[in-house]
Amino acid sequence: MPVNVRVFSLNCWGIHYLSKHCPQRYAMIGEMLSKEEHDVVLLQEVWSEKDYLSLKKKLASSHPHSHYFKSGVIGSGLAIFSKHRIHDTFVYRYSLNGYPYMAHHGDWFGGKAVGMAVLSIGSLTANVYVTHLHAEYCRDKDSYLPHRVVQAWELQQFIRHTSAGADVVILGGDLNMHPQDLGNRLLRTYTGLKDSYLETPKFEGCDEGLTLIGIRIDYILFKGSPKTDISCDFMCTTKGSVPDHPFPYSDHEALTAELRLKTHTPSDTGSEKVAELVDIVTEARTEVKVGLHCAEGMRYTAARTGVMGFALLILELAIAAVPWLALGAEQPFPRTSFYLLAALCFAILLTTSLLYIFYTMELKSLQGAEDQMRLAVGSLQEKLRGFPLAQQYNPQRRPPEGQEPSAFDPEE
Amino acid sequence: MPVNVRVFSLNCWGIHYLSKHCPQRYAMIGEMLSKEEHDVVLLQEVWSEKDYLSLKKKLASSHPHSHYFKSGVIGSGLAIFSKHRIHDTFVYRYSLNGYPYMAHHGDWFGGKAVGMAVLSIGSLTANVYVTHLHAEYCRDKDSYLPHRVVQAWELQQFIRHTSAGADVVILGGDLNMHPQDLGNRLLRTYTGLKDSYLETPKFEGCDEGLTLIGIRIDYILFKGSPKTDISCDFMCTTKGSVPDHPFPYSDHEALTAELRLKTHTPSDTGSEKVAELVDIVTEARTEVKVGLHCAEGMRYTAARTGVMGFALLILELAIAAVPWLALGAEQPFPRTSFYLLAALCFAILLTTSLLYIFYTMELKSLQGAEDQMRLAVGSLQEKLRGFPLAQQYNPQRRPPEGQEPSAFDPEE
Question: How far apart are CA B250 and CA A290, in angstroms?
């Protein structure tokens, strides 16, 4: 007998004093959720734990189980409410998440992460994930692209490696990526997650499923397992305004997907899928390399500026200590200028040291992701070669193995 | 037919210029590894990537597959070399790892982590983990205990959640915990990993399996799966000096375990195990709460000092700006003192702000772990109640469920 699961996802835009009508909107959200009684509610940008706690109180009877994922300075902003028992939770904080000095973008302080909760839905084990990736502030010149690609990479790694024991996998959240963006393709192709907007036979909501003015960046994705089939019967989004209320729930639209779980009927994943994956991972690797190059340049600039600050300090100390260096100037080194200059040198040294450390960490994370991707491509290519069954289906057969013996080196 | 797997683990003590005879010891290690040809080699404290690369070159024929796990400012120091194909790697960086200002302890800069590699050993999938937890500098007054307990918690979470698809799980590394330490019990009981030193029928090496002067803190742990049984046939450690060489390989002893994998024969895990786990997780939660309390105190101190620095700055500016505030002092505010005092105030403000941010992050991580532990205890207690099979084996039956209806509240 099939089991129906209603999943809800919303980026709550919960920045107190900055987001408009924050307390009123939380009240509306709480009211709606307790009425709608979704099975699983996935929220993002719940930046204040107080708001989570007040929602928890309000949803105590409709959603007795909940978890707030803590991470970073401010928090991850991620929360889950569930009708079903949560057995276990885990959180993975992305290794890259913008720059601390881009304070007006603020992502770094949020400690962006993916949260996971293991639920029992009837006799099935569901791994439910909620996440929020780094924002895209300028699509044409997106300096955060390598960071977001690494986040998408880590997200798919985390989901793939943690979901082997699950019957059902559900991911909801604000991916900050358009449907065909690299990170999105990487995530969906590698994990096999399906986009409920693309899968549903019946949709109600904004044109083209848009979730933020002009773009679709919020998703509910899902997949089954060898034991369980999953499909989407219906999906809807809010359409800006809310009947009988003066404002919308958030600056993003809310998503609801009605999923149906049932016993498995077998299917194939052929070599075409793997070949596509090799291409996407290779593209992602290129993007990460661009980021690496850029971070190396910035670290070099920080180091050079730091060395110049240090040289200036030494010079100043030398001039102050050895009077004849002042080359016959009549006045001694003015005290005020001396202290101001020294303070400036120290400030430069401190700032560049912190930046140097930060860029080093960024480089490590980028290199780490690049290493993992290289290894993954090698493994996928090997899988592709050893696809005897898939090759029978494939009309354009590759040349037999003996004819291309050393073209591929997994350790390159 | 059983498969034999030889696993090696060593903390390499690879701090150039600080560790004694570092290049010579790496040469010895490389020579020994290429001769011994272990299936899997797990190394810790390979702080320099150059050393990893030179080992990789030396082991190219004996161990064609390898990975270096990047993380943090310096790196995780973790590396794996394998005779078998590495299909996938993943790294989880612990959310807590000491304090940046304890620079002489240095752990914070290392970005301590757990690295994972998915190997194919024959037809079996092996998840191999390598890790290095925060050092214990003073056993009697160990201020890092909450951090290490959270690391052990995250380690068991990571292994449990990522190993559902594996036939075999192997963990090697420097846990910096004695065999009966809380974190060690937490790790072994929750994951079901067995200690090869305790399991082996045949051991050669230092008395009581010691791996660092007077203590046993390095381990090779393992477990099978519903499909695969695993046992340890033989284990050995080095005994300090190495024949024909002037120094030992490292300040730690090297561990070798010979594991045997074969098809599964079923066994039970009863309610005793779960009850023990509830006790251990509860104990860990207490330890984390102690850390929470301590971090709260330190954050409060940082905030108070920052406020005082700010007040001092305001006072100074006021005195300088409004001469009559100087209460009839004859001299004006001396310029040198003014700048020195202002610089001091700024330094205090900057330091306390950074510390405040750092302690906030620490608090979030501790709270996050505490939340996860509370949830886990709830889930385990529920499992314990619903153990109909186990209760039949258990001579001391618990009272029937009706008699203790509301004693347990999972959401407390």
Answer: 39
